[in-house]
């Protein structure tokens, strides 16, 4: 690999990391960069997913205060997320690569649309949270089931193609949870 391509990948990675720390969706920088440089789309998405692990762990650590008091919810969301991610990864690795190559343009367009409307989703969700007079610590069974299923569905998407997964999850949680966006 030429040094110029390595430099471009590093710059894309740093740029994506900066975008992820602010609004998410850095994969929309790195994925097209890798594909443009000749990497197979499947290789590019797997590389992106592996690269997101460190950011997810450090983000969880950084927001650990906001996670306090959410043990009951996380007890359901984490398994839903892990099982969904495993299902998405299974699909990624077992469906023919031709399916992925046909689906990726649609997923990229959907991810770009989500990035554009993401701030609007966040504003609506925040307004709902402010208007809801319910306790943030209690969710009924129906809402908890919907939250778990929504988390599972987003995780399947993320296990298959990770771009804009965070925006999808914020949308699901924003609709179902009467809390601030930060929490």
TrEMBL record:
Keywords: Cell membrane, Membrane, Transmembrane, Transmembrane helix, Transport. GO terms for cellular component: plasma membrane. It comes from Mycolicibacter kumamotonensis. Pfam families: TauE. It comes from the Bacteria. Its main location: membrane. The keyword Aminoacyl-tRNA synthetase does not apply. It is found in: Cell membrane. It is a multi-pass membrane protein. The chain crosses the membrane at residues 37-62, 74-93, 99-118, 144-177. InterPro entries: TM_pro_TauE-like, TSUP. This is Probable membrane transporter protein. The keyword Transport applies. Belongs to the 4-toluene sulfonate uptake permease (TSUP) (TC 2.A.102) family.
